[in-house]
Design brief:
The protein has 287 residues and is α/β, with parallel strands linked by helices. Helices cover 31% and strands 15% of the residues. It has ten helices and nine strands. The chain has a nine-stranded mixed sheet. Helix 1 packs across helix 9. The longest helix has 15 residues, at 136-150. The relative contact order is 0.20. The structure holds iron/sulfur cluster.
C-alpha cells in the first residue's frame, strides 16, 4: 500500500450509505443494485443495522442515508430511521416515492430528515420506460409535490438514461413544482447499466470512500454503493465498523479509484456533487 492510499482512507468517515434492501417496486433499466420486486433484504437483521447505526454514531458519523432498493419496503425501516434520529444523526431517505406510508411521512417531517429521489422525464411514458412501471411517473411526481408542500427538504436527481430523453423538460417541471435542489447526470455503467461484463473504476465519480462509505444488505462495506463491483473492504457481520473504515483494505480500494481534480469528501446535504446514485446515475435512488 502506498502512503497516498493510507492518507486517502484516513479521511474521517462522516457519511454512510445504508443499503438496507434489494427489494423495489420498480426495476429500472440502469439500477446500480439490480433491484426489483423479487429482491430481498439480505442477511443483515434489524439488530445488525441498529448496531451499525450505534457504531457509526460513536465513530463520529454525522449523516446516514437509507437506500436500497426501496428502503421504505424494509419491514423495520421506521425502527431503523427512528434509531438513527435518536442517535443524533442526520438522515437522508433515498426513495423512489412510489408509495409512502403515512407513518413514513410523519417521520420525514422531522428536522433531522431529508428526502432524495430520482426522476427521468416530464412525459409519463418516457419515465415509465426507465422504471419499467408505467404508473410510476404519476406516483413519484405527486409525492415530490407533497414533499415540497410539507416543507420537507428534497433533492431530485434527473438521470439521463435514454437517447433524446426529455431531461431539461423534467428539470423545468421540477422547478415548477417548487423543487430547489435538482441535479442532472448521466447513467453510470454499473449494475443493470453495465455495458461490459466487468465495470471499471472509471465509472465512479472519484470521491468514493473519501469521508463516506456504503454498507450493503449482506453487511459488505464499499467506498460507495456504486463501487459494489469491487471486492468488499470488510463485512460488519464479522468485523467492527471502525476496523473496516480505518483499515488497509478500504484504503487500498480508495487508492485504485481515479480522483477528479480537487476531489474532496462528499457533503450530501450541502453541495451538488455527483457522488451518489441519484446524481451519478446508477441508482436512481442516493444523495
Ligand atoms: S434504480 Fe432505484 S427505484 Fe429503480 S429499481 Fe433500482 S432501487 Fe428501485
Amino acid at each position: 500500500m502506498t502512503s497516498t492510499a493510507t492518507a486517502t482512507a484516513l479521511v474521517k468517515t462522516t457519511f454512510l450509505e445504508l443499503e438496507i434492501t434489494g427489494r423495489c417496486q420498480l426495476a429500472c433499466t440502469h439500477c446500480y443494485a439490480q433491484s426489483g420486486p423479487t429482491g430481498d433484504h439480505g442477511t443483515m437483521t434489524a439488530d445488525d443495522w441498529l448496531s451499525v447505526i450505534d457504531q457509526a454514531a460513536d465513530l463520529g458519523v454525522t449523516e446516514v442515508q437509507f437506500i436500497g432498493g426501496e428502503p421504505t419496503l424494509h419491514p423495520d425501516f421506521t425502527k431503523l430511521l427512528d434509531h438513527a434520529i435518536d442517535r443524533g444523526l442526520r438522515v437522508q431517505v433515498f426513495s423512489n416515492l412510489i408509495h409512502v406510508r403515512e407513518e413514513v411521512w410523519d417521520r420525514l417531517r422531522c428536522p433531522a430528515v431529508s428526502l432524495a429521489t430520482s426522476y427521468y422525464s416530464d412525459c409519463a411514458d418516457e419515465h415509465g420506460r426507465v422504471t419499467r412501471r408505467p404508473a410510476s411517473h404519476t406516483r413519484t411526481r405527486n409525492n415530490i409535490a407533497r414533499a415540497v408542500t410539507l416543507g420537507i427538504p428534497i433533492k431530485v436527481g434527473v438521470i439521463d438514461v435514454l437517447d433524446g430523453q426529455r431531461v431539461e423538460e423534467a428539470r423545468r417541471e421540477l422547478e415548477a413544482l417548487g423543487v430547489q435542489r435538482i441535479h442532472i447526470d448521466r447513467q453510470r455503467g454499473v449494475g443493470r447499466a453495465a455495458t461490459t461484463a466487468a465495470p471499471t473504476v472509471t465509472e465512479l465519480c472519484g470521491r468514493c470512500g473519501i469521508g463516506r462509505a456504503a454498507i450493503g444488505p449482506d453487511g459488505q462495506v464499499w467506498p460507495c454503493v456504486l463501487s459494489r463491483f469491487l471486492p468488499a473492504a470488510g463485512n460488519v457481520l464479522t468485523t467492527p465498523l471502525r476496523n473496516i473504515l480505518e483499515g488497509p483494505r478500504l484504503a487500498a480500494l480508495v487508492e485504485q479509484i481515479p480522483k477528479r481534480p480537487g476531489a474532496t469528501a462528499c457533503k450530501p446535504n450541502s453541495d451538488g456533487s455527483d457522488c451518489s446514485p441519484a446524481e451519478t446515475t446508477a441508482c436512481n435512488p442516493a444523495y
